Queue: 2 jobs
Job 1
Amino acid sequence: MTSPMSRRAFLQRTGFVGCSLAASPLITPVTFAATPWEARLVVIILRGGMDGLDVVRPYGDPALRDLRPGLGGGPDRGAHDLDGFYALHPTLEPLMRMWGKGQLGFVQAVSTPYRDKRSHFDGQDLLEAGTDTLAGVRDGWLNRMLQAVPGLTAQTAYAIGRSDMRLLQGRADVANWSPEAELGLSPQAQRLMDLVTERDPAIHAAWQEAQLLASLEEEAAVASGKQRKGAHERIADFAAERLNDEARIAAFSLNGWDTHKAQRNALPRALTQLSETLITLRKRMARDVWDKTAIVAMTEFGRTARENGSGGTDHGTGGMMVLAGGAVRGGRVHGDWPGLQSGDLYQNRDLMPTRDVRAHVAWIMRSLMGLDRATLEGSVFPGLDMGNNPGLLL
Amino acid sequence: MRAFDPELAEIRFGYGLSPHVAAPRDATAMLARLQGPDTMADTYPIEPFDTFRLRMIEVAKAAQIRRKNRGTPAAEAAKKRRNELNAAARKDGLTWAGHVLLRRIWTEDAFRERLVAFWSDHFTAHGKRGVIRRATSPYVQEAIRPHITGRFEDMLQAAVTHPLMLDYLDQSQSMGPGSQRAQSKKKNAGLNENLAREVLELHTLGVGGPYTQTDVRELAELFTGLSFAPEHGFVFRPKFAEPGPETVLGQTYADDATVGPVRAVLSDLAAHPATAAHLARKLAVHFVSDTPDPALVTALEAAYRDSGGTLIALYEVLLNHPSAWSTELSNIKPPQDFMCSALRSLAVPQDLLMRFGEKNMRLVFSAPLTRMGQEWQRPIGPDGWPEQDSHWITPQGLAGRVEWAMAAPEYILRVLPDPRRFVDDVLGARADDAVRFAAAAAESKSEAIGLVLMSPAFQRR
């Protein structure tokens, strides 16, 4: 019978730790092509449907109290007043400093073109595809943006974490990594792995990338002193480290927004992760890098304007986008407010979207990376009308 | 002509080759085993949910004692009792996981185990808070396993009205806005659409199916009253039920505040052509390829229709269809299947796994699965685990597999088989020169075994 052993002992016993892949001759040398821009873009997908009405509460709208007797409320119920109309969820208190410096903002009442079926999975697919319909679309909008810029390397953009990031899938090369994955093999085993996987291009490519990224992560871990943190903080650490270096784009997701029940307990958990993620990014990014950064957090749809029978909310339509970073015009809530009276709601149940979330993202990429409007409306978000500049960046 | 191949039957429709268990002779033998006695369930038992709920009663009792005796030694004792019950359920949960592994390692009827896994994923559910979080294996044992060869409708009825599903998708607290209970209670009384939506989108018609938001709403109203109590299991609460008839997909269901109309709508949904199309495609994708032969999907759909949704009829079509026997391996094994087929190829003895203990199970089973991207019994959403290969072939997922393949077999077995023989035992006719060379050239036995397990011929099926 096998005796209990610690995980470390288990790995050491098989010669598993301590061999640095960085020294391995198998590592493909990284070439750093000059990117045509210096700005950084971080896209966070909030999976599950964030309830924007509870995060940035329109307490100045008299209908809110009737729709949500158990949820929300303004400064009288612990929320932080933002501008006399909106108040921030109490859990996001740690972000008030960022708000005060003008580095945190929100856009209310936005949505993708997705309507009516309110499926998470289709909603997320459409948000990441960036199109009007899912028929025939296989790549994501962030990947199509990369395709439009010549001379980028795989290290320009990173999809981070275990979750599938469809918005970065497509023809342009993108690096994938999860800070939880570890890898350490003898040089001999590495060479033999190369040989064994050679005839399967998909497996072979993933293996090559795993080796390269393991070495990069090792460097990042050494630099940060290797404290044990939450997965979202480790992802933010890794993203900041890459963005301080040659990466220009990072994308990852945060789960836990599907608050059908007991939202007063469920939402703070997700919000804490969001706030820790944003704060980690700010702390770990170099000052001059942070100043050039726009962080965009978006979700597949908002939730019902009314609270449901279980102290939660169901799948809705109009939602909210979060903006952060030194490059954004923060300290304000953007977007046209549609109102919450029953005639104002979409299908008498959801917040009415007043603008396509893709238009906001397109304008951010227009300002941040200097992409022209024809590319953004033609290939990145095919068929989109960007409309007027909403002025989300400085 | 592509036709039945015993090795391929084990690889594609089972948990891979075993050095000790003979592969099935033909499709007829596979179907006969599938309809024969469930010997694995007897050999490696898992507690059914109806027994598991006694644990829930005990926990609820302890909580009640605590509430009524705050600050007294009785409350302290009750708290201790609750912690013991939770710890026991956690430990038993890992024992059942071990039994799931043993069934997959030692069965002669591996297709049955694959089908149980497939349908458990189709009806993904897990408990949310307290001891019920450990009840996934008992739910599968009770609501899924007995129905895998029978009528789909029976499985649908069992899964959708099961306490675990009602908990997972928030149905048990959903009340019709006009129900007696909502009228008498001011706060937190109302409808929850979660289960109704997922029944249409995931369990029956599929997301492309012919339903609207109004159908979701009406079905949610029809579902009001479905609930459970630890003392009884499933219960129908007439006071939660929305009065008045409801119309789903054009069919109106009468108002009699019983479970009757719920049974009727589930029966109609099971018989719907969109359900046949959805399930046919899903089976073909899961067992054959991400892009299955349309003729196979059509044949499965017809079998569903012609048999009134009898699942064994679909398996018969699947196992006798030429495109199911394409000699080229296609789908990547998800982490769980990769791990189980590795354990089967290593013929891990039952005594060893049964004495493994909680700590070791975490070390070599649950923690590595999570690192490979497939936490045990915890898919991210009610849609279960993704099918497409691109989801699983990622650098981080592969790093997790390499790490496990190179170290875990030796840790579990202590004495590894000769890698040069192992190549042929586990890959059969699919062993190529590269993997034979690697198995012989590796610096250690553990690396050699790991390399064989990491070869594309083992990773795909």
Job 2
Amino acid sequence: MNNKVIQTENLTKTFGDFTAVNTISFDVYEGEIFGFLGANGAGKTTAMRMLSGLSTPSSGKASVAGFDVYRQTESIKKNIGYMSQKFSLYEDLTIRENIELFGGIYGLRGRLLQEKKMALLKNLELEDDQMKLVSSIPLGWKQKLAFSIAILHEPRVVFLDEPTGGVDPITRRKFWDLIYAAAAKGITVFVTTHYMDEAEYCNRVSIMVDGKIEALDSPDRLKITHAAGSMDEVFQQLARRAVRKAD
Amino acid sequence: MKQFFSFIQKEFYHIFRDPRSLLLLLLMPVALMVIFGFAVTNEIKNNKLAIMDLSRDEASRKLINRFSASPYFDLSVLVPESASLETIFHKNKAAMVMVIPAHFNEDLMASHATTLQLLADGSDPNTANSLINYASAIIGDYQQEEFPETASAFQIVPITRMLYNPELKSAFFFVPGVMGLILMLISAMMTSVSIVREKELGTMEVLLVSPLKPFMIVLAKAVPYLLIALVNVLTIIALSVWVLGLPIRGNFALLLGESTLFILSCLSLGLLISTAAQSQQIAMLISLLGLMLPTMMLSGFIFPIENMPMPLQVISNIVPAKWYIRTIKAIMLKGLGLGAVWKENAILLGMTLFFLAVSIKRFKIRLQ
Amino acid sequence: METIIVENIYKYYPAATKKERNKALNGISFTVKNGEIFGLIGPDGAGKTSLFHILTTLLLADGGRATVDGFDVVKDYKQIRKRVGYMPGRFSLYQDLTVEENLQFFATAFETTVEKNLDLIHEIYIQLEPFKKRRAGKLSGGMKQKLALCCALIHKPSVLFLDEPTTGVDPVSRKEFWQMLKSLQLQGITTIVSTPYMDEANLCDRIGLLQNGSLLGIDTPENLTRNFGKPLFALKAEQMYPLLLHMRAYDQTATCYGFGDYHHITFIDPHIQQADIRSYLQGVGFTEPVEIRQIAPGIEDCFMDLLNH
């Protein structure tokens, strides 16, 4: 776990006179599950956009999978996976078509794509349902499918933006099984969530308040240093200090 | 009543906080008037005319002078005898060629009879026809003035006058059409889109779970667009009077009243669309395909209804703009009064009531 | 005194043929008492929103009957619309209107004024006041949620329907929101609230656990957890993921789920001893120290237990 997959140094993004992300510095290691927490409007989304090559930082340094976020955004995009609760799959395509489409977008072809597709379907036990439209399957399946597709091309890092919102507790846990399995294969997982019990599943957690990273450590050590019984308490302590209220 | 006005106030907030759309609504009529008034015109002016003069005498010179004085023709080339007439057309040097035969003056003096050859590009038959008509008229005038004695007692000379539009200005033709189009677009499309937007945003849910009467919601949505559409009517009339020089021969108040009636029928159509559409895109699509297209094609705005095949003529009767355009032409250009357009009024009123009744029946007090 | 009575409500999703019809709500019955905070807990697609739509008179049920504040949801829909406050799942505000304008508009829509009912929303409104000239679209998620609640309360409703008011809202704003609901309760307002967050269940007086259109259980949070009916163990070690895999492979394990910093496990044999678990782990080569405790189940444990039946 010593290979740094994400490195940032004083990364900053300003919009006019508003500093959305304020000189954040942190490293994420290979195969790590990194929880990226913060209240609404703390700057999480802006930071994720910069790291996934969608937005150019205002100042500071950052690299993802060894590529620079200023100059090598195309290479970054090839080496990361991305899944959000809002958009992930095309509802009017079948499960199989979605896999083939996204696999193709990330450059998987021919035999390799077929093999990966079959493995994915088998893993999710969707072989018999592969011709179903995504719109017709339950939300929990969709999220698992979206995640599996996001890591189909074996990216170095996968960014998950509130991946488990609104699913039932059992499905949520099955989803985390997939995350563990991906991390065990060496894929770094960068995840945001509003479920504080999920923060406990992460190797390390950062908490953003008003554009700055106020805490970064393993859940256990955070609880000790903040004299808190749960991650929820740690979060409440830190986030209540927030001055800015609006996005 | 207070609820109603506060709803209208809210609608105006929506409209004014989207200045780009508002500007579009207010400038669209201006743009359309400019396009139709200056760019798209049925009059063909300044056509390039080539003349092959084999006579070169006094009579031919006078005739050529008449052509060069006409606004319809630009004398572009005098073609030498040896030239091939076809290359003139191939190279697009002229839209029409006139060949004056040798001994033109002599023949006229001697026998009062001679021939002129007019060649036009038939691949564009409408233009060619107009050019030949213009040219024939110029030649006729020339003949009458130079040789008045030839108009013998037995000759019938038809005297034509274009009533209401003596100069055959195309503005007379398109202004009523543009009014119909703009009013239809703004009243029907904008109302339907603005109602459907509330469905999309989810605010309709909250409005329905309130003591607001559903029909009050819908009526309050229509009021701002009624006002904007009336502003558009005034803009179009102002532009056509002061820029395009159109007269208003009939009663101005009646003209506004008729426009209001048409706007109301369009608003009720918009309501009807909003009861059917679930998303703004669908509402927009229905408005464009279901209303704009028929208004352009079947209202008599661009194509004369009389020339259409029978089925289309029948369909044209259900296009509200057809009746509005007829009314406007009667009042604005012919100066007629209410008595002359009662039938059109009755039809528009009937349509409005019908659309309203259907929308009220279809407007849901629940979500499904 | 029952404010809401729901009797055997059915609702089908619209589908092409009768055979294909899926039940969104499958014979739901429950009551909400006057002045109570009743929670409908369940994942997306469980039928929470359909039920809210039926109770707020926005949808007609395909079977069963329901009354709100003594009025029938079908016959007396006009009466109900006058006396309920409703906050739909996506906070339904006008994004291009300011905070103040939104409030004014909804006050007038409900035939009242902001001033008349300021005492009820005062506590929430003072937090919004600094932003009253700001457009709703420019507010943060937590602020939007507060504004939506104000708008739903502006006419002093006797019943408040809140459809997933805390979804996508950060934990701090969520906590504040629940404090507001508690203080509204003191003013006598009956609240029925839906949420996918299990931890919010404990803040309700009574809850209904909803899954696939059926109520799996209705009771107070305390009674629900008391009825769990089997010992529950929490296990913790340094290597949590391998521990999870080992425990799932144990032939005595009935259920095994990650639960924050612990794994929660039930066993087939209700009399299982900690020593049995330890010797199993030793046997499969998991040698690091493991913390094992028997714990009282939470709502989430109960819900997962009910889901498995």
